[in-house]
């Protein structure tokens, strides 16, 4: 049995989709037809070469993606799976969160370093707790802290190889004494440096989520680190 | 406190999302890499794909999460091409970062990386429809039927495009004398 040249048949043969009888017939054809033989050889060479492109994702990409989703979950209207239980106020609060246009906090730091024995007015408890956590590389994550009766959820990410803490709370992070305000005259966004650690905080009005980011870089570098990661203010 | 209940719900939803989608990051990043002009653009495309997917997670049927993600990724890449409206010359794909990172030794790592550069450059020369079909099928690890749905064309068309593209790729590499060392 002979078969005519057909690109479609070659394609089906190469993807293993010919029925056994058809495959046998095409095998015979390949022995007789130089054009099909070369086409099949080239296809196989091309396919083999493509194996060189089966590379793993860039280190840190998974963390970057997880961080972006985490931030979206906190600041934007989330992607509700068909609501599993009634959430009164839920959608209103989500809208409010979106409307608050929280700056998205993301940052790159190198290894977080312990800060000890510093002599200055003590930081507010929630801030101090997150900074303390930043120095414990073995701390289990995500961590759920209870400070002064408020819940603070802390996640650790490795972004482009660097450890990064993001703390989220339903209440604002009070501004430490040794810090400076970033936006306007209110205390919504502030930065502070603690030894080699930079702190960058975006506070939301009561009832919305505030975030505190901590990494080993000057606080003033955090916004541009944020931009470099492809995040922009919501 | 309803506030905390709400927060817990958010967390549960995005953890579920990441559990379902992060296993496919490798496929998404490979596809994005070869639908983008450069590495930075590819990483942005991956992130955008995940953010769009997260926003649409509620309407995802759960059938094939990988195919769903790759559909989003392909559509985003296409709309960005339309925006650019012009074909920008391929940027070098060099970026030989950390070649010595793995245990295989610097030389082997560089060589492997260069092979990838050569093949990637040749892939970039294929007509777009062949390149996209190959990227979605051979790099995205999908079936011809899945790719056909993503591209809105018959399955036979996908197989033919993939065949034509692989064949041309093999030819290009042979013409350039890379067939021995490389393959
Ligand atoms: Zn023939």
Question: What does it look like?
Answer:
The complex is a heterodimer of chains A (234) and B (183). Chain A is α+β, with helices and mostly antiparallel strands and 234 residues long. Among the domains of chain A are: 7-51, no CATH class; 125-228, Phosphorylase Kinase, domain 1 (2-Layer Sandwich). In chain A, 34% of the residues lie in helices and 18% in strands. Chain A contains seven helices and seven strands, in the order ααααααβββββββα. A seven-stranded antiparallel beta sheet of chain A has the order 1-2-3-7-6-5-4, with helices on both faces. In chain A, a hairpin with a 7-residue loop joins strand 4 and strand 5 (189-194). The termini of chain B are far apart. In chain B, 73% of the residues lie in helices and 0% in strands. Chain B has two domains: 1-95, RNA polymerase sigma factor, region 2, helix turn helix motif (Rna Polymerase Sigma Factor, Chain: A); 101-183, Winged helix-like DNA-binding domain superfamily/Winged helix DNA-binding domain (Arc Repressor Mutant, subunit A, Orthogonal Bundle), CATH 1.10.10. Chain B has 183 residues and is mostly helical. The longest helix of chain B has 21 residues, at 155-175. In chain B, helix 3 (39-55) crosses helix 4 (65-84). The radius of gyration of chain B is 19 Å and the shape is globular. Chain B has helices at 2-21, 25-35, 39-55, 65-84, 106-125, 128-139, 144-151, 155-175, 179-182. The model of chain B is unreliable at 85-104 (pLDDT under 50). The relative contact order of chain B is 0.10. Classes of the chains: A alpha+beta (234), B mainly alpha (183). Residues 5, 29, 33, 35-36 of chain A line the site of zinc ion. Residues 5, 29, 33, 35-36 of chain A line the site of zinc ion (ZN).
């Amino acid at each position: 049995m002979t078969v005519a040249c057909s690109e479609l048949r070659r394609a089906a043969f190469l993807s293993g989709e010919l029925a056994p009888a058809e495959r046998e017939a095409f095998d015979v054809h390949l022995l007789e037809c130089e054009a099909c033989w070369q086409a099949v050889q080239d296809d196989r060479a091309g396919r083999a070469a493509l194996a060189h492109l089966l590379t793993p994702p860039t280190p840190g990409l998974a963390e970057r993606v997880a961080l972006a989703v985490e931030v979206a979950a906190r600041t934007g209207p989330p992607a509700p799976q068909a609501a599993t239980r009634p959430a009164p106020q839920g959608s209103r609060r989500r809208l409010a969160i979106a409307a608050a246009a929280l700056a998205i906090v993301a940052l790159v730091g190198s290894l977080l370093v312990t800060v000890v024995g510093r002599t200055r007015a003590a930081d507010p408890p929630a801030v101090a707790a997150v900074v303390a956590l930043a120095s414990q590389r073995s701390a289990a994550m995500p961590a759920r802290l209870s400070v002064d009766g408020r819940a603070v959820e802390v996640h650790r990410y490795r972004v482009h190889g660097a450890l990064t803490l993001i703390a989220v709370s339903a209440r604002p992070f009070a501004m430490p004494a040794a810090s400076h305000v970033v936006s306007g005259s209110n205390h919504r966004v502030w930065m502070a440096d603690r030894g080699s650690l930079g702190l960058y905080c975006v506070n939301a009005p009561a009832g919305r989520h505030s975030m505190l980011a901590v990494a080993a870089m000057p606080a003033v570098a955090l916004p541009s680190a944020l931009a470099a990661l492809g995040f922009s203010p919501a | 406190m309803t506030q905390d209940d709400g927060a817990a719900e958010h967390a549960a939803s995005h953890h579920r999302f990441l559990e379902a989608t992060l296993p496919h990051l490798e496929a998404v990043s490979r596809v994005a890499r070869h639908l983008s002009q450069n590495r930075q653009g590819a990483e942005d495309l991956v992130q955008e794909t995940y953010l769009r997917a997260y926003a649409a997670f509620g309407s995802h049927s759960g059938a094939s999460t990988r195919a769903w993600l790759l559909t989003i990724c392909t559509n985003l890449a296409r709309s960005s091409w339309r925006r650019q409206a012009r074909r920008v010359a391929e940027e070098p794909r060099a970026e030989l970062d950390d070649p010595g990172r793995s245990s295989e030794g610097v030389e082997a790592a560089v060589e492997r990386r260069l092979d990838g550069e050569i093949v990637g450059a040749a892939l970039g020369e294929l007509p777009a429809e062949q390149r996209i079909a190959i990227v979605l099928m051979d790099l995205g690890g999908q079936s011809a039927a899945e790719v056909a749905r993503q591209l809105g064309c018959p399955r036979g068309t996908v197989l033919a495009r993939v065949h034509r593209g692989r064949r041309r790729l093999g030819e290009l590499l042979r013409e350039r004398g890379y067939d021995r060392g490389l393959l």
